[in-house]
Description:
With 222 residues, this protein is of the alpha+beta class.
Amino acid sequence: MNLHSDSIAKISAALVKVQATLKPAPKDANNPYFKSKYADLNSVWDACRDALTGNGIAVVQTARVDDGNPRLVTMLVHSSGEYISGEWPLRPSKENDPQALGSAITYMRRYSLAAMVGVVSDDDDGNAASGRTETQQGKQRQSKAPAKQQAKTTRTTKGDDLPLSAQAASRLMQSLTELGIPADEHLAFASDVTGREIAALSELTRAEAKRVHKIANGEEAA
Length: 222
């Protein structure tokens, strides 16, 4: 599939006008686990819908399967017939589960729409930045620890940097649901905990998955 039409002159000019009028998407959805707010799909749409339609651009988002792998296609279509599109892989946290697939689609629709149009949220990536900072500080503290202590840490965490298996990701999904976290919020929750964008629970390392579960279960503070 071609990512854009032969000519993108008109749609490019229209996107310049769109981005000149865009405002940050308000964070009007609640994240009860971190007592914070985030910009959901509706908020991102509200931030760009008028600017897009006012400049002759429609958004089409569809899912397709490529060699057995689901993918989300987001296309910006101009009234001239020109278009620009992008594809993102969908990695449901549980195979053959319509609810897990629906959650992955909703999550990726939000991120792909924001990325292609240029929508940001107030204090965009604030949680992720904080998470990275805490991780970096943790590494710095570890580097200053005595050699024996570092060796002990290495032994006790052996294998924790390995990715989750499909079965482990499925068990984590079930546990999060049982702990009261809706399936369509699993990925956002994991992203907030790890400080990086998580498109599928199988992307978590074993250590990250343990922390996600502990925070969800109230065993550890966020």
